[in-house]
Amino acid sequence: MRTERRRLEAALARLSPEDMLIPGVVNQSSVKDIIAHIMEWEAMFFPWYEASLRGETPEVPGPGLTWKDLDGINQRIYEKHCARPLEEILADFRAVHQRLEDTVNAMNPDQRATPGYFTFTCGGSVIDWMNAYAAHDMWAKKKILAWLKKRQPAVIGFVGQGDRVLAASPAVQPDTLLCWHRNMSHRYGGANHSPRSASRTSHLKPSS
């Protein structure tokens, strides 16, 4: 997770603040929209984790929601953050991730690696979830660099050599973490993660 975040930060370092506000990086999403999306999904970890510590089984991805509701969840994320200043989004993006790292580092090895240790993981391990978050960062990095390459083909290239995410454990069910991972990491370029508003009516179908 730390490696992929470092690579994503390196991609962000190539951008000016003005660049981060330009739509069209993924469908109509700007870089600011993308990092707000990543930040919000990482922030969801904490209420799930805290409920698990209390012996509760939180509703994941949210009360009354299933993984089939990703379109609506991601739309609400966009609406929540679209009007916020870039500086605030960047600060939260980094603070939330640091808190996530600190929380996971404070766990003992069994808490991190044992499938089903926490109720929110739906039978997976915390490591599985961190791998999914790392894949989210890896996706964002690749999309940003691809966008930059189109804008500056003589200067910008991909930084993808060695990209790899560990496979989730077999205990993870396909309609839980793996579904989330698959949708967030591989279908993000499609309708599932495209901000929608009255002024944004054209969206691509989810990629296969």
Structural class: mainly alpha
Query: Which CATH architecture is right?
Result: Up-down Bundle
What's the order of the H and E elements?
Answer: HHHHHHHH
Shape: globular
Query: How far apart, in Å, are the first and last alpha carbons?
Result: 25 Å
- State the CATH class: Mainly Alpha
Query: How many separate domains make up the residues?
Result: 1
Task: Spell out the blueprint of helices and strands.
Layout: H1 2-12, H2 31-43, H3 45-53, H4 70-81, H5 86-105, H6 109-113, H7 126-151, H8 177-186
Helix pairs in contact: 1-7, 2-4, 2-5, 2-7, 7-8
Descriptive overview:
The chain has one domain: dinb family like domain (Four Helix Bundle (Hemerythrin (Met), subunit A)). Helices cover 51% and strands 0% of the residues. The protein is an all-alpha fold. It has helices at 2-12, 31-43, 45-53, 70-81, 86-105, 109-113, 126-151, 177-186. The chain contains eight helices and no strands.
Short description:
By secondary structure, the protein is mostly helical. Helices cover 51% and strands 0% of the residues. α1 packs parallel to α7 and α2 packs antiparallel against α7.
